[in-house]
Amino acid sequence: MADDDIGLYPAGSFRPATGETAGGGVPREAQWYFARETILVPKAPATASFAPGQSTFDDLRQWSAARGEDAPADAPPLVWIGSTHTLRGASMSEDGRQLRDGGAPMPVRTVAKIPLNRSYYDASSVAFLALRPLSVRGEVEDGAFVMRTVWPEDFRFGPGPPSSRDLPAASTPALALRALMREAPRGGAQSAYAAWTLWRRDVPERSFGGRPVLAFMVNGAQGDDDEAHAGHFALVTGRVRADGSIGDWLVDNFYSLDIESEKGILAAPVPLDNYLGDLNSGQSWYRPSYVLVLVLRDARAPSLVQSAINRVYRQFYRHQLPYYHPDVNCTSISIDTLRTLGWPVRARGASASVLAWLAFPFMALRARSIAKAKVSFDYLMADQTRLLPAAALEEVFTSVLALARGDAEAGALARMVAEDLEAIAFLRVPQFPSSRAFGDAPAVSTAEYRSRVPKDPAQVQIVPVPPRPLPAALRDPDVTPPPRHPSDDAALSWGAIAVVGVALLARRLMRRR
């Protein structure tokens, strides 16, 4: 890996380790989560930090205000690499039993399927992968390569600029992007990989090789999980390699730490080929994906974003920022970071705030649980651009076009993007064939989400997963209590109404007697 990059960082600036062997440079909470996972640890001690005793985004706001625009990217606390060996330009035999990377063929096996994972790599996967050059990560055991991650190298961004295309006709940029994501059947899950340039500054034609990128990835709806119709959101940073490969871009993935994912997903910065191609946790084994790529002439904007996200990870691992699906999730953490850094992505507001308040007692009675009613309330109250990945991507795209045309009010980060933007591109990554059902484009509203869930509760597909609480001994004493959720006020208000109502009813009954 010495010649690789890891996002904006040279691979040589990291050393391989596991959580158990990482040493004091890695947060102790992360050492526990990644105890037996292969990670990359920065060699230099100057990794991203945080201010104790402050909320995550107050800390981020103060830090960004004092940071110089041209400061290099702070190192992440770790990079989840998963494997110690990498093969580039490899080919797979038609039966899937051998790999060749220029030398003698090597026997290949796949890493074991996680028991909770309901589908896996199969003969259709082999048929798909044997047709193309591959990047493969894994381990060498008893003369065989144990494959953990596989990535098609023909899924690239160059070497020349992607072909230009016009956006679908629509009344707004958001609707045009939505049409682009949905123009192929099932959101492109079974279509060819595609890369297009949607906008380019009027500069001499040149390759994008070596240019820094700031990208936004949305993974689509899964075909066999009714909790995953909205998809997933992640920020991406890196550089365009001379050959156009993108597998070493760094994807910032946030996922609940307090459960054991059925796919083995852990929240961490992770190379794009791992994020999409890991045989258990890779998103491309579950659904199509879409990447909005900003090609920039300077690395200051992606360096700022990556440094900020690295700081957020420090707070995330220690639970200063606890994951909560309605409003502290993969989308909200990413969008809140952009807004804090000075990119005012437009909010769409709550899905149904009035309905949420009126329906709260009925939701509690139907679910026979105040806690479940509170979660449902918070979903309806959440700003859609902090809840729904597709809605967030549409608003980011709208904002980017406005910045490109010079007609948008900009904070610090948005101003950097506006000044440095050279091109806007779009990538559509299909789902890899396996035993899993094919997915679709992500739902863009809570109403669309509900329309995809079976009406019969017995037909709803959900994968139960065990909890994974952080040990009390690893909790820092300065962690501040989490902020109140809107549902706390709803529960108190309706509780007070119920108490007063019961008292009035009792008084009336007593008078009648």
Question: Cα-atom Rg, whole angstroms?
Answer: 24 Å
Number of helices: 14
Task: Tell me the β content.
Answer: 15-25%
Q: What structural class should be given to the helix and strand makeup?
A: alpha+beta
Q: Compute the average pLDDT.
A: 92
Instruction: State the shape.
Output: globular
Structural account:
With 513 residues, the chain is α+β, with helices and mostly antiparallel strands. The protein has 2 domains: 5-83 and 151-155 and 168-348 and 383-440, no CATH class; 349-382 and 486-513. It contains 14 helices and 18 strands. The chain has helices at residues 28-33, 56-66, 123-129, 173-182, 272-277, 300-317, 330-341, 353-367, 370-381, 384-387, 389-405, 412-420, 446-452, 486-512; strands spanning 5-6, 9-10, 14-18, 38-42, 79-80, 85-92, 98-100, 106-110, 134-141, 144-152, 163-164, 194-200, 212-219, 232-239, 250-253, 268-271, 289-296, 421-429. An 8-stranded mixed sheet has the order 11-12-18-17-13-14-15-16. A 5-stranded mixed barrel has the order 6-7-8-10-9. It has a 3-stranded antiparallel sheet with strand order 3-4-5, with no helix packed on it. β1 and β2 form a beta hairpin. It starts with a strand and ends with a helix. The model has no long low-confidence stretch (mean pLDDT 92).
How is this fold's topology laid out?
Blueprint lengths: L4 E2 L2 E2 L3 E5 L9 H6 L4 E5 L13 H11 L12 E2 L4 E8 L5 E3 L5 E5 L12 H7 L4 E8 L2 E9 L10 E2 L8 H10 L11 E7 L11 E8 L12 E8 L10 E4 L14 E4 H6 L11 E8 L3 H18 L12 H12 L11 H15 L2 H12 L2 H4 L1 H17 L6 H9 E9 L16 H7 L33 H27 L1
Parallel strand pairs: 8-10, 11-12
Antiparallel strand pairs: 1-2, 3-4, 4-5, 6-7, 6-9, 7-8, 9-10, 12-18, 13-14, 13-17, 14-15, 15-16, 17-18
Helix pairs in contact: 2-6, 2-7, 4-11, 6-7, 6-12, 8-9, 9-14, 11-12
